[in-house]
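cron nightly-structures :: item 1 of 1
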Amino acid sequence: MTSPIEFSYDRERGIRTAVFRGVVGDHELLSAYEELLRDPDYAPDAHDLVDLRPVERFEVSAEALRRLVDMFRPIDRLGYRTRLAIVAGSDHAYGMARMYELLRGDDVPEEIEVFRDMDAALRWLGSPRGSRE
């Protein structure tokens, strides 16, 4: 069975992409990111693009989102100034993405924005820090 979360990495652009499909629950979310962070080729200085548009349903708890935030604390301590663009197609996915953004807080080196439009997210990932089109 394939994971409902698939990662790819464009080294040239320095962007790691995660595409969420189907039904994503706590187990799928946490195990996918545990595996990603264990990968010896994981690039902590890459920007991230998360595409939630293909998700059919989220079954992710607030506790799982908190655990995901905790997983990234060691990466945050490295101090890389990165960006995370999350593209949400549904209101529910948008709400989940905003909850994650709020749980991450303002004291992390990662700048996070939630979008409805993929082109706007890609433009933002390539623009100077601190700007939003």
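cron nightly-structures :: done
Helices lie at 26-38, 62-71, 73-77, 91-104, 118-126.
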